[in-house]
Amino acid sequence: MLWYRARPNGDDPDSCIFEINVIERFAEGAEPPADVEHGGNDWSKVDWGLILSQDFQNMGEVQKGMKSRGFKGARTNPVQERAISNFHQVYHHYLADKN
Question: Residue 15, CB half-sphere, CA atoms under 13 Å: how many?
Fold first, then answer.
């Protein structure tokens, strides 16, 4: 299993902590030693592979666009991210009932 996680970097809205995690199953006794890499503070010096490198090249422009007056907010994918949309709807409803 491979997954990515981007989480806030303190109070800095212009940066994040980005993690790549991998879980793999091995036969008993065939497990290799755990391999942990830390990219350090300069993400541009890490070999992320073709796809992530291409995605990362766009991030500066995406951030500029998100700060423009024309950006009204992010929207989830109505099919693939339905659970996220539902979570936020229920969460907002719950908060509204508590006030």
Answer: 8
Token couple for 85: 């949309």
Instruction: Report how far apart, in Å, the C-alpha atoms of 4 and of each of 21, 83, 85 are.
Output: 6, 18, 19
Considering the entire predicted model, what is its pTM?
0.55
For 11, the token pair is 């109070």
| Span 26-48, pLDDT tens digits | 999 999 888 777 767 777 777 88
Write the DSSP string, 6-62.
Answer: EEEETTEEEEEEEEEEE-----TT-PPPP------S-GGGS---HHHHHHHHHHHHH
SS3 4: strand
d(CA 25, CA 4): 18
